[in-house]
Specification:
Blueprint (H helix, E strand, L loop, with lengths): L7 H18 L4 E4 L4 E3 L5 E9 L11 E6 L2 E4 L1 E2 L6 E7 L6 E14 L2 E8 L3 E6 L2 E5 L3 E3 L3 E7 L6 E4 L2 E2 L1 E6 L2 E5 L7 E8 L4 E10 L3 E4 L3 E4 L3 E8 L8 E7 L5 E2 L3 E3 L5 E8 L3 E8 L6 E8 L2
Parallel strand pairs: 2-10, 12-19, 21-28
Antiparallel strand pairs: 1-3, 3-7, 4-5, 4-8, 6-7, 8-9, 8-10, 11-13, 13-17, 14-15, 14-18, 16-17, 18-19, 20-22, 22-26, 23-25, 23-27, 24-26, 27-28
């Protein structure tokens, strides 16, 4: 059966008539549309529209309830769902090339008041269901150290996607339309960061990721040298450094005694070696922080020539 599209004023009149019929019959019906406005696109192109209908049993003429959906200018019966009593559904086949459809639900039944029967017709408001061909399911892990590779599962990914951890772009690898992965960038450990996917025009939130401390070993564990002398220090990470390398924060409480360069572990590497030089005589420590779960202290002694 085809329905001629009705104007808003005529539709309003129909709804008003239905309301008057309900008032006259003394009957109230609850109609709850259980369908989300956005549905994930699927290969079948079939999308289930679901609603809960509950007339006032004492006023309903048994067997008179008919639940329908009006979509694409046509009316279709909705069938009882296995989800529970009073729940009806309709499997809508979205036409090829379409990404949305507008519809409303139509309820017809008979109501009794006293010995008289009244026909009742109700309409729900117009709703539009849209298909999402790009969405994110989840992170395959919600925590990890700097440099760890984390996958994101979803749909509609492209090679142009870039994952952001907080406000920092991460090295992103396009695996397929359903999977992308990223390497955790060099960020402060022990904190939570919001992860999002950006395609250049829009950003979509994925979830929260916690950056854990990265395993780090420093050798030697104690340094002794003379003024003008030199010593070699090795830094060994438990995971490869992320894209751009990993800068390790090394400081000292005897800056006039120890002359040292910055420590940078190259991208993809697990080790870095630096050479420090003795300055004025003094005793103190090197402090390595920002990578492991805690600060590493290396005693340093610089003696006169």
């Amino acid at each position: 059966m085809h329905l001629t599209p009705v104007s808003l004023s005529k539709r309003a009149a129909l709804i008003m008539a239905a309301a008057v019929a309900l008032f006259s019959a003394g009957c109230t019906t609850s109609i709850v549309n259980m369908t989300a406005d956005t549905l994930a696109e699927n290969p079948s192109g079939i999308y289930t529209i679901t609603a809960r209908v509950k007339p006032q049993d004492g006023e309903l003429i048994k067997g008179s309830l008919h639940v329908s959906i009006v979509i694409d200018g046509q009316i279709f019966p909705m069938t009882r769902s296995e989800l529970g009593d009073g729940i009806y559904e309709y499997d809508y086949h979205m036409p090829a090339g379409r990404t949305e459809a507008t519809y409303y639900l139509l309820i017809n039944y008979g109501s009794i008041r006293g010995r008289m029967g009244f026909p009742v017709e109700e309409y729900t408001e117009l709703r539009t269901v849209k298909l999402a061909n790009r969405y994110v399911y989840t992170l395959d892990s919600i925590r990890g150290p700097v440099g760890a590779r984390i996958a994101i599962v979803g749909r509609g990914f492209t090679p142009q996607d870039v994952v952001y951890v907080g406000s920092t772009p991460a090295r992103t690898v396009f695996e397929s339309v359903n999977v992308i992965s990223f390497s955790v960038p060099a960020l402060a450990a022990g904190q939570n960061y919001e992860v999002s996917v950006n395609n250049g025009t829009a950003s979509q939130k994925v979830g929260t990721f916690r950056v854990d401390g990265l395993s780090l070993t420093v050798n030697p564990t104690e340094i002794t040298m003379r003024t003008g002398g030199k010593a070699t220090i090795n830094f060994v990470l438990g995971n490869p450094a992320p894209e751009g390398g990993l800068l390790i924060d090394v400081s000292t409480d005897i800056p006039k005694s120890v002359i040292m360069p910055e420590v940078l572990v190259p991208a993809g590497a697990t080790t870095a070696t630096i050479t420090v030089q003795g300055g004025q005589p003094g005793t103190g420590n090197l402090f390595v922080s920002g990578v492991g779960s805690g600060e590493i202290s290396v005693p340093v002694t610089v003696t006169a020539r």
